[in-house]
Amino acid sequence: MNFSEAAADESALEVLRCIEDKLFETGALVSATGDSESDVSLRFETMFVGGEELPVLVIAVTSAVRGVENRLSCDELRNDVLARYANLLSDLPDDVREVLLDCRGPVVTVNGVRHGGS
User: Fold this and answer.
1) Could you tell me if 51 and 74 are in contact, meaning their C-beta atoms sit under 8 angstroms apart?
2) By the 8 A CB rule, do 61 and 40 touch?
3) Nearest to 76 by CA among 17, 33, 21
4) CA 82 from chain center: how many Å?
């Protein structure tokens, strides 16, 4: 199985949806952004990191609030997502999990722009 197949696997997408739901339910997204109307989407994609195209887990934050990128607590958001992801990895089929374990990140984007030294 390659990265694209693993990233599109329904079990992997379900894990990401569960994490997104928890970020909303617990208020972690609002705490990290300071914006009660912000949104988040988690996905696996390839991205240039250190001049090399690599598979990454992306935390894509969207917000209409001006300056939210200056208030965003990237470390808090990354740590929350990583902890939840680690807890749900065992829910993935072995072949999917093996491929996705090689992902870098998570990388945070705000309104499509990479943010916070990720």
Assistant:
1) no
2) yes
3) 33
4) 8
